[in-house]
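Data card: per-record layout.
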Amino acid sequence: NEDMKLDMRLDDRLAVTAADIVNSRDEKGLADLIYNFGQERASRRIARSIVFARDRKKIDTTSELVNIICRALKCSPNARRSRIHPATKTFQALRIAVNSELENLETLLSSAPEMLAKGGKIAVISFHSLEDRIVKNDFRQKKTSGIYEIATKKPVIASFNEIRQNPRARSAKLRIYEKI
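The structure for this 180-residue chain is written out next.
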C-alpha cells in the first residue's frame, strides 16, 4: 500500500477532495458521513480522532489518515478486521461523498427508462450494500409500476474462483432488468 495524496476524486475536474472533507467538516458532519456512507459503527470515535489530529497538522495523505483511524480503533495499520482493513469503511465513505456516487446512481436509474427501448436491458453492478439497496428498491418500484421485468431473480455474484483471481469481485452484485 503506497502513500498517496488524500484526493479520491474519480474525475479531477471535481472541486472537493477527500482532504478537503477531512480537514474542514465538523466532528458531527464527519461522523455522520462515515456512519452513513461507510456503515462504520465506530464513526464518532474516528471523527473525533480526525478532528484532534487535524488541529495539530493538516491531513494530506492516505497513510496519515490510515494511522489516525487505526489510533482511534486501537489497532495496527497493518491489521485486518475480518476480510477488510480497519480504514476501508472510512475511505469508502469519503470516496462516495467526494464523487457524489449515490446521487449519480439515482440520477442514472431515474433516467434509464426513457433511454431504453422496449426489450432493452439495464444491468447494474453494485459494490456495496448502499448501492445495492438503491438499485434493488428502484428496480422493485419500476417492476410494480409495470416498467421493468426482472431478468435475474437473484443478483449474480462472483464465483469462488473469480473472487480468488479478483478479490475486489467479492462484494459485486449484478442485477439485470428488461423494459417491458
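Known properties of this structure: Residues 109 and 138 are 7 Å apart (CA to CA). The mean pLDDT is 94.

See the next section for split statistics.
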